[in-house]
Amino acid sequence: MTVKIYIPQDAAALALGAERVATAMAEEIAARGLDVAIVRNGSRGMHWLEPLVEVETAEGRIAYGPVKASDVAPLLDAGLVSGGAHPLCLGKTEEIPFLKQQTRLTFARCGVTDPLSLDDYRAHGGLRGLEKAVAMQPAAIVAEVTESGLRGRGGAGFPTGIKWKTVLEAAGSRKYIVCNADEGDSGTFADRMIMEGDPFVLIEGMAIAGIATGATKGYVYTRSEYPHAIAAMEQAIEIARAAGVLGVSILGSAHAFDMEVRTGAGAYVCGEETSLLNSLEGKRGLVRAKPPLPAHKGLFDCPTVINNVISLASVPIILDKGAAFYRDFGMGRSRGTIPIQIAGNVKHSGLYEAAFGLTLGEIVDEIGGGTASGRPVKAVQVGGPLGAYFPRALFDTPFDYEAFAARDGLIGHAGIVVFDDTADMLKQARFAMEFCAVESCGKCTPCRIGSTRGVEVADKIAAGIEPEKNRELLADLCNTMKFGSLCALGGFTPYPVVSAMTHFPEDFSPAPAVEAAE
Ligand SMILES: Cc1cc2nc3c(=O)[nH]c(=O)nc-3n(C[C@H](O)[C@H](O)[C@H](O)COP(=O)(O)O)c2cc1C
Ligand code: SF4
């Protein structure tokens, strides 16, 4: 019987040498005349073990990692094909604690299946949600999503069902589903991993959204920095179209839905939904004032659902298993699971899907294993470049939208970036202002001018020039940006700055200029 060996084609694995491993494996298999098929899967999300090679055995899949091309021959000598012992052997993949302790709902198939095999997708529970949806009334689908408690995973945490209801009820001969796959937040990669590792789940989620709201056309808006995700999505869309999952008659029903991928040049602000719409229409990525909401007047002035990749990819399992199944996970008003992306100076970086409610300390210390440098953790930035820096004193904060907001933080797209005690928080605050200045769309003054002034003030504090006065000025500037900006880029840049000032005041009191010069 042909043995299956899995070697990821995920961009993170490729960056760590997966292509060289696959080439070496193919050559060795041919030279040894082995009956082996190489499957290029997605990533399991354990970045420190990539490239992670797996072999299918009667006992389940056995993992080896991190594998280099030069390890391939010795691994085959050691009996890799039958799961043989070797120093790189990690045992059964599903038993690796980082994976075993997760609740994989949205990422259930990622790394498990062949991303471009629709048969494999079906064999692992795929299309069951869509099969149910084609037989349901649109309002019933919307009600199911609403009852599941699903909130947008792109950053704002807005209830997905309510957004869909608005589009369903909006009048319009054409409606659109736009998937926000811009994924600009620092330390985030969940959208990319799904698009590369399980693209059909996003297609299925978008088709369900189309049926639920009366939209017949969808766009996945992503960035040019994601070439592997773009290729995987485009191939998967063609396969889905050929199989009747997309097109004029979804799964043989009276519903039509088709979709395509559009690539932006890669600007952080183009992840903001109205700026994204402008970019998608071929215009400059300038933020639009709201109202009108995109749900009323979105793409080409038509009612439009804009949802993050993970929001849409979570819908198939909700339809398949029911709202109550999904809602039973989580805490408070944060229902279901969230793919936490652990990055920065951390030992075990990767993607960890879990029900809401883990504390930040559990995520950083236990799951992440502390810093990669072995030094103490100083700060953790949660929620991308607009997220607050949390010190160890706030590590008891549970991963929950409201709990983070209560401590002047945000979950955002669930990216966490870990810093050790060598981090200079004044420099991080300056970086937040600089990032905003570079990425600002320029439409409103507090953000366009304020961010540049913010960099200057941070530099003055660093130089020891009137530090007290300049700290006050920085706080005042943050207040103006927070309340005077048109969108969250200018409005949330104060979060990393103010949190750095509040929790790490010592970094904002450098030695006076004269002393420093002596
Ligand atoms: C500056 C800025 C950048 C954003 N970038 C993204 C992004 O990359 N991906 C995303 O899904 N949402 C992003 N958002 C949030 C979107 O505006 C919007 O809330 C989201 O796409 C809605 O989808 P959801 O309800 O499924 O989260 C960004 C918002 C701002 C203000
Ligand atoms: S806050 Fe910044 S990015 Fe947002 S509209 Fe104003 S200038 Fe543009």
Explain how this protein is built.
The chain is α/β, with parallel strands linked by helices. Helices cover 41% and strands 15% of the residues. The chain has 4 domains: 3-101, Glutaredoxin; 118-328, NADH-ubiquinone oxidoreductase 51kDa subunit (Rossmann fold, 3-Layer(aba) Sandwich); 336-414, Ubiquitin-like (UB roll), CATH 3.10.20; 425-508, de novo design (two linked rop proteins), CATH 1.20.1440.230. The chain starts with a strand and ends with a helix. The model has no long low-confidence stretch (mean pLDDT 97). Residues 269, 287, 440-444, 447-448, 485-487, 489-490 line the site of iron/sulfur cluster. Residues 426-471 form the NADH-ubiquinone oxidoreductase 51kDa subunit iron-sulphur binding domain. Belongs to the complex I 51 kDa subunit family. This is Formate dehydrogenase. It comes from Sinorhizobium terangae.
Please outline the helices and strands:
Elements: E1 3-6, H1 11-15, H2 18-32, E2 36-39, E3 53-57, E4 60-64, H3 72-77, E5 89-92, H4 97-100, H5 118-123, H6 128-134, H7 138-148, H8 160-169, E6 176-181, H9 190-197, H10 199-213, E7 217-223, H11 227-242, E8 258-264, H12 273-280, E9 304-308, H13 309-313, H14 315-321, H15 323-327, E10 330-331, E11 334-335, E12 337-344, E13 350-355, H16 360-367, E14 377-382, E15 389-391, H17 401-406, E16 415-420, H18 425-439, H19 445-462, H20 467-484, H21 488-492, H22 494-503, H23 513-517
Helix pairs in contact: 6-10, 6-14, 7-8, 7-10, 9-10, 9-11, 18-19, 18-22, 19-20, 20-22
